[in-house]
Amino acid sequence: MCRIARPYRLLPALTAMVLLGACHDDRAPLFAMDRAGGARLQGDPERGRQLIAERGCIACHAVPGVSGPSSRVGPPLGNMARQAYVAGLLPNTPQNLVRWLMDPPAVNPRTAMPDTGLQLADAEDIAAYLLRNAGAREKAQ
Predict the structure, then answer these.
(1) What is the pTM of this model?
(2) Which residues form the Cytochrome c domain (predicted)?
(3) Would 97 disulfide with which of 63, 70, 127, 133, CB 3.0-4.6 Å?
(4) CA 70 to centroid of chain Cα atoms
(5) What is the pLDDT of residues 71-116, one digit of tens each?
């Protein structure tokens, strides 16, 4: 039987391979996208982009297509359609994203994200932008 003399030397290489494999982002979005690249969701993606800027979402999140200060308080929102969960709790569907945007503390009382008072139409518009953003990148590849 062959033994590896120093298995601890393999650990960094194995760790690097696992991490690089996790970075692979050729996965399709988790739900169907419409012809315009947006999720099948009632909402105006362009208005959603404007709301993200106006509501100050970029104070905590990096959002592709919305300029503002660089922030690392909340997670980056550039690949929402490929995430398995919204906020690590809800299965990622357009409806659950809207639910989260409307009242994060109702979903997770321990979240740092405040209830920003979004109305249903505003949350749908923001969700449409966040979900369309991933679809547009997918088409560009």
Answers:
(1) 0.69
(2) 43-134
(3) 127
(4) 17
(5) 889 999 998 989 999 999 999 999 999 999 999 999 999 999 999 9
